[in-house]
Design a protein that fits this description.
alpha/beta; 4-stranded parallel sheet; 3-stranded parallel sheet; 11 helices; 42% helix; 17% strand
């Protein structure tokens, strides 16, 4: 918890914050916490879950990730630069082009790390992207119309390790929050309302905005423009990945 408890937004039933510290500050006392990492952890997560793959998030890319794959009898996703035909990486396009394993360990320094934190501070952690924002909001409202919900934008990292607020995650979080508000949720914090407004400002041209934002340009420069296009598949997925015993599974199938 932060030194100032007011920073927790605990006076509100619908909250929004950034990164690992934001997850710590905002998720306590909630019924549901949602992690959003549009480029690319939660987009890849939804593509995998759509393919029937259970996903084990990993905070690490080292031997601990290998051990996690052995523990769950899972395929370990490789780094983007190590991906080759038939191998899955953090790029959602690789999930579509490779044979689908039953389980996949997906390392991510931002989305996975926050998911682990949320699993320890909130009763339920859900993974959301632009692809399934409406489905996640609908599921949360159907499960518990009065659920106290925190939506966490993962953000990226500057070279010194500090948080870089990434606008695509603001839009993804805002898409979830806007859908919750449209479905009748109330008591949203100013932070949550601002995220929803940011989404509404770009929702009619989000593909172009994603390609032009810093993270989108970075991915295109790395040779992965298709991942940005997949991230822009707004509400194309009905999956609701929930973290259960360290594994993301689709709540709509369980």
């Amino acid at each position: 918890m932060p030194a100032d408890p007011e920073l927790s937004q605990n006076a509100y039933g619908l909250r929004f914050d950034w990164g690992l510290c934001g997850a710590d500050a905002s998720a306590e006392g909630t019924d549901t916490a949602v992690v959003v990492d549009v480029l690319s952890f939660t987009t890849t997560l939804t593509v995998a879950v759509d393919a029937g793959i259970d996903v084990i998030p990993s905070q690490w890319r080292d031997d601990r990730a290998t051990q996690l794959a052995e523990q769950f009898d899972a395929v370990l996703a490789v780094g983007r630069s190590a991906a080759s035909p038939g191998r899955i990486s953090l790029c959602p396009a690789t999930v579509r082009s490779a044979p689908a394993p039953a389980r996949l360990v997906l390392p991510s320094p931002n989305g996975s790390t926050i998911a682990h934190e949320l699993a320890s501070t909130a009763p339920l952690c859900v993974g959301a992207s632009l692809r399934n924002a409406a489905a996640v909001a609908q599921w949360i409202r159907a499960r518990n119309p009065g659920a106290v919900t925190a939506v966490i934008a993962a953000g990226e990292r500057w070279p010194d390790g500090s948080l870089r607020p990434a606008v695509e995650d603001l839009w993804g979080a805002g898409a979830v929050i806007a859908a919750l508000l449209d479905a009748g949720a109330s008591d949203a914090s100013p932070e949550a309302r601002t995220a929803a407004a940011a989404w509404r400002a770009v929702e009619h041209d989000v593909g172009s905005e994603l390609r032009q934002c810093g993270s989108g340009r970075e991915l295109a420069g790395m040779g992965h423009p298709e991942d940005v296009d997949i991230a822009a598949e707004v509400d194309s997925s009905s999956c609701v990945p929930i973290l259960r015993d360290g594994v993301f599974v689709d709540a709509t199938r369980s």
